[in-house]
Task: structure prediction
Amino acid sequence: GDGWGDNQTSFFQPDAFPLEPTQWNDFDGDGFGDRFLAYDPDGDEGPLAPIPAFQSDECPKIYGTSTLGEYGCVDSDGDGRADAYDPCPWDPAVTNGVLSGPDAVTCSITSDPNAVDDQSTEESSSLMGSSTTMIFMGGAIVLLLGLIFVAQVAKAAAKRKSSAARAEERKVNLAFSEEEERRLAWIDHYVAAGQLDEARALGWEEPAALPQWKQHEMAEQAATQAAIPTMMDLDKL
Result:
């Protein structure tokens, strides 16, 4: 009955406290209402009689968790007392007292334990920067060594490939050379034996005109070759 709708998805005055008629708005979202006074339509002093609102936020524009005496203010040590009223805002063991006089309290923690010293931060940043530089340089060196290694491997592979190609070429040339020697030997044999057709089949070309003495010499060589007994002739003996 506070005039604010309970539908939280509504854009028209959604009630942050649908079950609490004295509170309906929470600007900083800390769970404590912004109203200090509410009006009770059924109050003894009339329909507009003011009444204290439930757990009014002492710091309505600043998120806070204090609950001891003051609601909704910053409470750094989490003891329930707002820092503005806490003699030891960083010591959760002390919530009341004064810092001077005969009844002065002693704060065991006098500064934010979560704060980082500026010098330590600077040293950490410097160390981090140095570490980053060393890591970068190390990575660059590793990359360079890797490239050198890959280049050496590629060079060795190319050298092996070239050596293999040269060896294969030598083998082919040797095979051709041996084949050529055999061909020439057979040509000489056929020519000496007078088997000119066989010699021509192997690529022999008959001279255009041989001197008489050369023809006579070739005829004698053929006769001599024919006179040599073969294995078959020996078997017939």
